[in-house]
Amino acid sequence: MASRGKTKARHFTTHIDLPPAVREQLVDMLNDHLADTFDLMSQVKQAHWNVKGRDFHSLHLLFDEIAGELTEFVDELAERAVSLGGYAAGTARMAAANSALPEYPADVSDGLDHLRALVERFGLYSARVRTAIDAAGKMGDQATADLYTEIARAVDKRLWFLEAHIQREV
Description:
Helix content: 55-70%
């Protein structure tokens, strides 16, 4: 997974026992997901700020809780990249330039529309994180694979919470 943006990652010396080329690949992958996670967090905050409708209060609180959890993952991904001897590309502009997620719709205000938009983005995000679990494992970095597993577990749970609001019994 190569970085999509123009930010050239810097690398620093470390005594972590992974080969430098592997660490560089991992740092690039972590920065890709850092961008996605930062972007997703900001999209959830967008929903939090702008939700309207009958379920306003419960959705407002849910979206804020989810954004807070994603903020923690932003930090974990950035710190893992740096611990591997890399440079965390973590500004809002870097995230916007490098995120694989679609832009959040600017005309959404109804709670159900926010839920549908977030479900779509969480589904895409979850799939990308799951791919990263396997990639990190194949590169021999179980610690990074474990971080991605932790993120996948939390994101899948949040996707369930979001989907539960729009699912109907069949």
